[in-house]
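We now fix the convention by which a protein and its fold are recorded. These numbers are not coordinates but entries in a learned vocabulary of local backbone shapes. A record is reproduced here so that you can trace the correspondence yourselves:
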Amino acid sequence: MSINPINKNIGRPTTYKEEYNEKVNEYLIACEDEETATIKTENPITGYKGYETKLKVKLPTIEGFSLYLDIPLFTLYTWREKYPLFKQSLEKITNKQKERLISKGLSNDYNSTIAKLMLSSNHGMSERNDTNVTMQVTGIDIAIQKDSK
């Protein structure tokens, strides 16, 4: 007897639990950025040590939350559509991500180019150029407005 890999069930289906809504708060706490300091220069005569600090970024994502719970991403998206409270919980993750990208991108704690890319691709934000053209055709004014996003 051969096993058909397409119809093969891998494990039991995961069951939604209300406690996953609280897990979002735990996950967000675990996603706080960390500053690390490393010795950049050291003077053996004076004992002076110069340190360089770097920010270890732990940006919250729904993908990261999926790994945190050890639940497939597809399952989280299914639950988001089925359970309104869970949808709100996942929105907390995306809202926190957006807030951090904006504030830390503006302060240069995050790379502003990467922050801009993520805000445009994940949060619908983009630069906007409006072009307005007005022309007159046989005594009738026509206004054309082009929004480019």
Q: What stands out?
A: The chain has one domain: 19-148. The chain has five helices and four strands. Residues 19-148 form a domain with the Topoisomerase I; Chain A, domain 4 fold (CATH 1.10.132). The two ends are 56 Å apart (CA to CA).
